[in-house]
Design goal:
This protein is α+β, with helices and mostly antiparallel strands and 155 residues long. 63% of the residues lie in helices and 14% in strands.
């Protein structure tokens, strides 16, 4: 097991980085609400309102909130477990997922939709919070594949 001093430094660094991305996402969302449009290479930065979930999949109503609650519970459960086991990679990835989801949930509560502001090649609109969730899930999947762990859900 890793020395506590180095473990805590890594945790502080990871959480500071995630907090930075959260704040940046909130700033970009506020900026996009002004209606400003900017094209940079293959990306268009402008306001897109997403009433669905990831990739605008149309899930709403009670099922949406039930699904959100289950996902939130599982992420928090495994995050606490990862902190107890001092699993830095799992802590980082689960915190990315949790904070990215929190940012999108704040949008849904404040505006009734999720604010997306990056449009890639007119194919899909997303935001930094979506990228945080995607990266967190990708890190978890990679870790599961590399360690040949079987997914065990124990509640």
């Amino acid at each position: 097991m890793e020395q506590p001093k180095f473990y805590y430094r890594k945790i502080v660094l990871a959480n500071t980085l995630i907090l930075f991305f959260f704040i940046l996402d909130r700033i970009f969302k506020k900026f996009s609400l002004t209606g400003t449009t900017k094209n940079i290479f293959l990306f268009e930065f402008s306001l897109w309102e997403n009433s669905g979930i990831a990739f605008s999949i149309p899930i709403q109503g009670i099922f949406f909130y039930f699904l959100l609650g289950v996902i939130f519970y599982l992420v928090v459960f495994y995050l606490i477990k990862s902190y107890r086991q001092r699993k830095i990679i799992k802590i980082f990835s689960l915190t990315l997922i949790l904070v990215g989801g929190l940012s999108n949930l704040l949008d849904r509560l404040n505006y009734g939709v999720v604010i997306d502001y990056i449009n890639f090649l007119s194919l899909t609109a997303f935001n930094l919070a979506d990228l945080m969730i995607l990266v967190g899930v990708a890190i978890l999947i990679r870790k599961l594949i590399l360690t040949n762990q079987k997914i065990k859900i124990r509640i």
